[in-house]
UniProtKB/TrEMBL annotation:
<feature type="transmembrane region" description="Helical">
    <location>
        <begin position="49"/>
        <end position="68"/>
    </location>
</feature>
<feature type="transmembrane region" description="Helical">
    <location>
        <begin position="16"/>
        <end position="37"/>
    </location>
</feature>
<dbReference type="Pfam" id="PF06541">
    <property type="entry name" value="ABC_trans_CmpB"/>
</dbReference>
<feature type="transmembrane region" description="Helical">
    <location>
        <begin position="113"/>
        <end position="134"/>
    </location>
</feature>
<dbReference type="GO" id="GO:0016020">
    <property type="term" value="C:membrane"/>
</dbReference>
<dbReference type="InterPro" id="IPR010540">
    <property type="entry name" value="CmpB_TMEM229"/>
</dbReference>
<keyword id="KW-0472">Membrane</keyword>
<keyword id="KW-1133">Transmembrane helix</keyword>
<feature type="transmembrane region" description="Helical">
    <location>
        <begin position="80"/>
        <end position="101"/>
    </location>
</feature>
<keyword id="KW-0812">Transmembrane</keyword>
<protein>
    <recommendedName>
        <fullName>Transmembrane protein 229b</fullName>
    </recommendedName>
</protein>
<comment type="similarity">
    <text>Belongs to the TMEM229 family.</text>
</comment>
Length: 186
């Protein structure tokens, strides 16, 4: 007889992976959109570097820790301002390190308000907006995901009664969690 086990939150490594993939995807989409706006290139060639996986995954995992620490202490606009400052520091630090090995994939030297070609003030608004999206959509939803090692793919786990496979909960509302981490609240 199988015992009902509570699904566990994702591990830091699992969350890092999701954040890395998110950042990687956004980088490709941003560079494709930039290429279209600047050069009217209908091919939308998006580019990035394999370093972006480490850079975004680690940066967003640290922003997650900031979010958990600051969410009850200051409003979302101040938090996003702090995240933006952190992003600039992280981008500068990782860029400086990668430059030592001739591996830095970005160069902002052509921008008017750049510093050492590693960061540019022109990206302040996009970084601020990205930090808002990261907090509100990516981090908050990633923290809600759960891993149930005993669930079969597609199996529904009933909430409230502690039974697997469809027992009705006794609470005010029933929560059913699909094995892939999707949470449905009725």
């Amino acid at each position: 007889m199988a015992t009902a086990m509570t699904p566990e939150p994702l591990t830091p490594l699992s969350r890092w992976y999701l954040y890395a993939i998110h950042g990687y995807f956004c980088e490709v989409m941003f560079t494709a959109a930039w290429e279209f706006v600047v050069n009217c290139n209908w091919k939308f060639p998006g580019v990035t570097s394999v370093w972006a996986l480490f850079i975004y995954g680690t940066c967003i995992l640290i922003v997650e820790r900031m979010y958990l620490h600051l969410r009850d202490r200051c409003n979302v606009l101040l938090r996003c301002f702090i995240y933006t400052l952190w992003t600039y520091m992280w981008e500068f630090g990782t860029g400086l390190l990668l430059r030592q090995f001739n591996a830095c994939p970005w160069d902002y030297s052509q921008f008017k308000y750049n510093f050492m070609g590693l960061i540019t003030a022109e990206y302040a608004l996009p970084w601020f907006c990205a930090s808002l999206i990261v907090e509100r959509l990516v981090i908050r939803n990633t923290l809600r995901l759960r891993f149930d090692e005993w669930a079969e793919p597609g199996q529904v786990v009933g909430g409230g009664s502690g039974e697997r496979g469809g027992g009705r909960g006794r609470g005010a509302r029933e929560v059913a969690t699909n094995a892939n981490g999707y949470v449905k609240v009725d």
